[in-house]
Amino acid sequence: MNLPNKLTLMRILMVPAAAIIYLAVPADWAPVVPSIGLGGRDLIVFAIFAIASFTDFLDGNIARSRNLITSFGKFADPIADKLLVNTLLILLAWSHQASVAAVLLMTARDLIVDGLRMSAAKSGEVVSAGWWGKVKTVLQMFAIALLLLHNWPFALIGLPVAQILLWAACAASLYSGWIYFEKLKKYVLETM
């Protein structure tokens, strides 16, 4: 197994670790910035998320630069990304740190796009991530990071940057989903 695939597997394994810590450790454990509710649990999960996000950046760059792109990597990398992002978004919505509506819209978009990609794959077309899909992912990752940090340092000056990024990610998610639908609807609608 090459290094990029090992990094992808490591990212997948970090998802249940982050979820277990988030669910098992009280939110107010080891207060760090009590005025905004930031505690040790969220800092630990933030650290896991930051490392996992960095492995996403790293595995893609290593695979492309060293020509180590594999079928496993093409399959597992997007799954690892969605597991990481969607798990944390659901946990943040569960703890009322993220809008349930935004999380549901982004999760539904992911399911629809995955279905479209599967339909296209059955017809022999492999669809890679588009530019707007990458924008969505970057916005989601920054939004999750700030949500885990309780919008620190922006909360200290009353600026809701985490929520702004979350809704920007939702808008980019829906827009990129529409682009995928327009591009791939022929594979779904051809059998109607």
TrEMBL record:
Pathway assigned to this chain's UniProt record: Phospholipid metabolism; phosphatidylglycerol biosynthesis; phosphatidylglycerol from CDP-diacylglycerol: step 1/2; Lipid metabolism
Gene Ontology biological process terms from the UniProt entry: phosphatidylglycerol biosynthetic process
GO cellular component: plasma membrane
Transmembrane feature ranges: 12-31, 43-62, 83-108, 138-157, 164-181
Name of this chain's protein: CDP-diacylglycerol--glycerol-3-phosphate 3-phosphatidyltransferase
Function in brief: This protein catalyzes the committed step to the synthesis of the acidic phospholipids.
Principal EC category: transferase
EC identifiers of the protein: 2.7.8.5
Major localisation: membrane
Topology of the protein relative to the lipid bilayer: Multi-pass membrane protein
Reactions mediated catalytically: a CDP-1,2-diacyl-sn-glycerol + sn-glycerol 3-phosphate = a 1,2-diacyl-sn-glycero-3-phospho-(1'-sn-glycero-3'-phosphate) + CMP + H(+)
Keyword Cell membrane: yes
UniProt keyword annotations, A-Z: Cell membrane, Lipid biosynthesis, Lipid metabolism, Membrane, Phospholipid biosynthesis, Phospholipid metabolism, Transferase, Transmembrane, Transmembrane helix
A GO molecular-function annotation: CDP-diacylglycerol-glycerol-3-phosphate 3-phosphatidyltransferase activity
Family stated for the protein in its record: Belongs to the CDP-alcohol phosphatidyltransferase class-I family.
InterPro entries: CDP-alcohol_PTase-I, CDP-OH_P_trans, CDP-OH_PTrfase_TM_dom, CDP_ALCOHOL_P_TRANSF_CS, Phosphatidylglycerol_P_synth
Cellular localisation: Cell membrane
